[in-house]
Amino acid sequence: MTRETAQRLARRGTWLTAVSLLLVAAVYVRALAFTPPDRFQGPAQKIFYVHVPAGWSMMLGFSVTGILSVLYLWLKDKRLDLAAAASAEVGLAFGVVVLTSGPIWAKPIWGTWWTWDARLTSTLFTVLLFVGYQVLRDALTDPEMRALAEGELLTAVRVPRRAGVPWGYQKFVRRANDWAIVGVAAIGGRIALANMGPVPLRARAAEEALAGGASAAEAAALAAEGTSPGEDIHADREFREHLARVLTRRALEHIS
User: Fold this and answer.
1) Is 35 found in the same domain as 114?
2) Which of 18, 86, 140, 248 could disulfide-pair with 220, CB 3.0 to 4.6 Å?
3) Please, are residues 37 and 43 in contact by the beta-carbon 8 Å criterion?
4) pTM for this one?
5) Residues 141 and 231 grouped into a single domain
6) Shared-domain flag, residues 35 and 133
7) For the residues of 86-132, what is the DSSP string, one character each?
8) Helix or strand or coil: residue 40?
């Protein structure tokens, strides 16, 4: 490609980007200012007009990066590596939008800015993974050093179980694979509660009761003490406290 051709393509790209940004701005003005508020969620629902497209764009960018990276390892075409890097940057930009717009919606609807639900946590982990990808690319000046050797491709992340240590996990959801309205994990005399406050909590009162020789049912009755669950369209405070007691008893009975 000649220098003149590259400059001509760059000018076209600048104009195309400017027109695209204007059209996107027009769409969002129309969506945010001229659509009626949702019956149940109110104005907070309008954040979906930003959050959902950003989520799909983020996943598309990361997926393209993965596909092009695999093709680069196979074909050794540097253009594939450059395209993968560009796609990762786009995915990261939309990932930041997802991680900022999501809590803005969650606060009025869920009553909390963040919950350590599997889907939310995996999204955060994926964005941080690609942040590391970008940092590593910038740290290496030789493109060939970025290619993984055979057997170095990340295929799974496993958390090992402690041999001989029983554990139990219970959660209550509206639908299969949905976020937990309340979740309870118990292992080695420790009990963790999810969605019983702005961050995951330890059920200290229940743990102390277990250490003192209380039964699973007696300890579970204290599971909600010291918690501050929020209220939303899925459950109020009283129901979440009830779920915490019931699920703690089931988790403890599972490991007893």
Assistant:
1) yes
2) 248
3) yes
4) 0.53
5) no
6) yes
7) HHHHHHHHHHHHHHHHHHHHHHHHHSSS----HHHHHHHHHHHHHHH
8) coil
Provide the domain count of the chain: 2
> What are the backbone angles phi and psi of residue 15, rounded to the nearest 5°?
-65, -40
Question: What pLDDT score does 154 carry?
Answer: 65
Enclosing domain of residue 213: 167-255
Q: The tokens 């209220």 sit on which residue?
A: 231
Task: Return d(Cα 60, Cα 91) in angstroms, integer.
Answer: 7
Compute the distance between CA of residue 188 and CA of residue 210 in angstroms, rounded to an integer.
Answer: 10
Task: Say if residue 115 is exposed, middle or buried (CB neighbours under 10 Å; 0-12, 13-18, 19+).
Answer: buried
- Rounded Cα distance between 189 and 178, Å, is 27
Instruction: Report the distance separating Cα 169 and Cα 83, nearest Å.
Output: 42
The CATH number of the domain where 205 resides is what? 3.30.390.50
Dist. CA 110–CA 197, nearest whole Å: 11
Per-residue pLDDT tens over the stretch 56-110: 999 999 999 999 999 988 888 888 888 999 899 999 999 999 999 999 998 888 8
Categorise residue 163: left if φ over 0, alpha if ψ from -120 to 50, beta otherwise: beta
Cα–Cα distance between 94 and 159 in angstroms, integer? 29
Spatial separation of the C-alpha atoms in residues 102 and 235, rounded to whole Å: 19
Is 152 contained in some domain? no
**3 domain residue, yes or no:** no
Same domain membership, residue 179 and residue 78: no
Whether 19 and 108 share a structural domain: yes
Q: Where are the alpha helices (DSSP H) in the chain?
A: 3-34, 48-75, 78-110, 118-139, 204-211, 216-220, 237-255
pLDDT digits (tens, 9 = 90+) for 9-39: 777 778 888 888 898 888 878 877 888 888 8
